[in-house]
Amino acid sequence: MHLPILLFLFLGIVVSGEARESAMGIVGYQVAKFVDAMHLKKKDVILQLFNTTADDLKNVDEFMEKFQRIGFTVLSAKFINNGKIESDVLVSGNIPGKIVMSKSPGSLTGWKITQLGIEKPKSVTKFLDAINLKKKDVILKLFNTTADDQKNVDQFMERFQGLPITVQSAMFNNNGGIESNVLIAEKIPGKVVMTKSPASPTGWMITQLGVEKPGSDEKRNWSKFSMCWIGLFWCAIELMVDWGDAMNGRYYPRG
Questions:
Q1: Fold for the domain defined by 122-247
Q2: Is the CB of residue 136 less than 8 Å from the CB of residue 147?
Q3: H or E segment at 23?
Q4: Tens-place pLDDT, residues 205-232
Q5: Quick check: 142 and 79 in contact, CB under 8 A?
Q6: Which of 185, 190, 143, 182 is nearest to 164 (CA)?
Q7: Is residue 239 within 8 Å of 254, Cβ to Cβ?
């Protein structure tokens, strides 16, 4: 009497196992083909395997350059809604990332990568936590510093107290670092650049933290941040916040 129940349980385990292996196999094959096409610089194959737009077609050389020598390790894969596959991966061996794929009859594998991303850099969160807790040793590990910076770390912490930095996007650059677009004080566009650092508690060090230079219309140029410029940087933030409040009709004099 229990035989049909056991049979259905067994079949359920086998089917679910096959689905899981199938998803892993599909992602593994797709990633292998994608990485191979990158190394061999096969533009036509890359454009079949990766979801592209008109801008991507124009910039495929730059796209290939950014992904050269970057490896992917597939950790897990599962089918999600609409027949898509979602996969957790490690990028360059230690950076958590995610790949989403959907079916594509025009692709040589029958699938196309529609999303490929990394988690928002934890170094920014760690950096702000260290500022709030006034942990000098952690700050100096997370931020690229000079001898002058180390002397002025108290002033540096004071200036950054209560200053929020919101990470909006993150991507690899040509040097294996990470460039991230951020909002400083919730409204000022900025950029964070990080490079690998084995001595840092996160494995990364912030080498640039800056705001957009005024008047850069066609091409964005980003000013490098230095602790020596903290006074000017802080005054600029105060002025922009006051100006924004005044424009919105809610200006309150600062005491």
A1: Nuclear Transport Factor 2; Chain: A, (3.10.450)
A2: no
A3: helix 3-40
A4: 777 776 655 444 444 444 444 443 444 4
A5: no
A6: 185
A7: no
**What pLDDT does residue 56 have?**
57
211 close to 232: Cβ distance less than 8 angstroms: no
The residue assigned the tokens 């909006």 is 168
Beta carbons of 168 and 149 less than 8 angstroms apart: no
pTM for this one? 0.40
Do domains 3-118 and 122-247 share one topology? The answer is yes
CA distance 95 to 74: 12
| CA dihedral sign of residues 137, 139, 145, 151 | negative
Select from 3.40.30, 3.40.720, 3.10.450, 1.10.287 the CATH code of 3-118: 3.10.450
Cβ-defined contacts of 42-46 (< 8 Å, 24+): 45/108
Question: Which sequence spans correspond to the domains of the chain?
Answer: 3-118, 122-247
Tens digit of each residue's pLDDT (9 = 90 or more) over 116-138: 776 655 556 666 676 667 776 77
The token duo for 138 is 């952690």
Chain centroid to CA 95: how far? 9
Which residue is associated with the tokens 């809610």?
250
- The answer to whether residues 74 and 62 touch, using CB atoms and an 8 Å cutoff, is no
d(CA 187, CA 109): 43
Residue type, 8: F
Long-range contacts of 93-97 (CB under 8 A, 24+ apart): 94/203, 95/119, 97/72
Contact 210, 190 (CB under 8 A): yes
